Amino acid sequence: xxxxxxxxxxxxxxxxxxxxxxxxxxxxxxxxxxxxxxxxxxxxxxxxxxxxxxxxxxxxxxxxxxxxxxxxxxxxxxxxxxxxxxxxxxxxxxxxxxxxxxxxxxxxxxxxxxxxxxxxxxxxxxxxxxxxxxxxxxxxxxxxxxxxxxxxxxxxxxxxxxxxxxxxxxxxxxxxxxxxxxxxxxxxxxxxxxxxxxxxxxxxxxxxxxxxxxxxxxxxxxxxxxxxxxxxxxxxxxxxxxxxxxxxxxxxxxxxxxxxxxxxxxxxxxxxxxxxxxxxxxxxx
Length: 285
Fold this sequence. Notes:
Low-confidence stretches: none
Strand content: 25-35%
Distance between the termini: 15 Å
Mean pLDDT: 91
């Protein structure tokens, strides 16, 4: 019952081994189609190439700052944070140009030591490139603040995954409070909390596929883990007794039209019969 964002250029494919070790249910958080491994693009400019960075984002954080996390250690577990005020050279906070933002970024010594910002006239976008080759550094832009307008994460992958996959969220070995609990942590997912943060809710509601087409997600809908199973595992079953002699059994998360079984007990014998689920068969724990 968790929403996640994938800000990286590699698809996340989580394997949930259920009961039979040969039966693995895959849960996917798509690739961030708005970037490549070493280069990210903004997707929020107007036709004139300007951004409204005045005031605050929907959670009350100043839109002046852009925050980037990056890791350059061999296992990408030691994350550092850079925060840059991208309005420092702007003539107007309500119409900050791409050139003004790239200038503010490149004039920041901490940023310029690891990244280079530029404007791309061919597709009217702002870009940030890592100075190290792809595969030697990972980085992503934090949602909210200036990113709400710049939209570096506009095409980041978003998916609802079971809470089990929280083990693969981005965790920092340098910060005890964020030390990963699981040794198999992959450091690839950003948890989204739409109940608490409007910025996270917007990331879900505005999620699109690689072609920019809305996925139709609703941040107000958060499914339980058993619902996300969608009837794909025989390890978790719902058993409903209709009578002393008749019991309905179906896999958790199954829908009307899916296969189930009716267990009949008659004259000392037990029969397991195929049954196609109807909407009236389904129950909620």
